[in-house]
Amino acid sequence: MFVFKQKKAYDFFFQAEDGIRDRSPSRGLGDVYKRQVYNTLLLLFKSGIFYNTFFTDHNTDRSKGVFCTDTLLGIVGIINEMLVYSDECTVELLPALNTGLINGEICGLLTKCGIKINRLSWDNNKRSVYIDISALRDTSFNLIYDNESIHLDMKSGEQTLHKFLH
């Protein structure tokens, strides 16, 4: 019997691809793991199973015309969690970012601990990560990037900026 024990979508995605079912949640994911998540996503994008809208057909032969949103929504969730993982007391930045994504930015993500990520940007050439966050409610959480953890207590409406160098 399959028992889903993971909290992170990218953990499950990797496990399903690799047949692993009882892996403990991880911090400080290795480059091999990050590369496998990234490469599996690339394989899916290149596979031809998507319509132009990222919808798929349940039968993948496109003969039935039954649209499936699972892949569309699942891939968005996996990409979001590659960039930001959160639970009730944690916001982890770039936990499964592949080194091939040298720089980038994402805005407007909501977390499970009541934080809105107004802007998260990273530049591996400059070895820096910037985050601008706002509290949607009073909250207490750990902000984690790489091996650094900062505990924050924020009041509703409060905004803060942080810069991490690695």
What are the key terms here?
disordered N terminus, five-stranded antiparallel beta sheet, alpha+beta, four-stranded mixed beta sheet, 166 residues
In short:
24% of the residues lie in helices and 34% in strands. With 166 residues, it is an alpha+beta fold.
Low-confidence stretches: 1-7, 12-29
Helix content: 10-25%
| Beta-strand content estimate | 25-35%
Shape: globular
Commentary on this structure:
The radius of gyration is 17 Å and the shape is globular. It is α+β, with helices and mostly antiparallel strands and 166 residues long. The chain has three helices and eleven strands, in the order H-H-E-E-H-E-E-E-E-E-E-E-E-E. Strands 5, 6, 7, 8 and 11 form a five-stranded antiparallel β-sheet that branches.
Write the layout of secondary structure elements.
Elements lengths: L8 H10 L12 H16 L9 E2 L9 E2 L1 H14 E4 L2 E4 L9 E4 L2 E2 L4 E9 L4 E8 L3 E7 L2 E7 L4 E7 L1
Parallel strand pairs: 4-9
Antiparallel strand pairs: 1-2, 3-4, 5-7, 6-7, 7-8, 8-11, 9-10
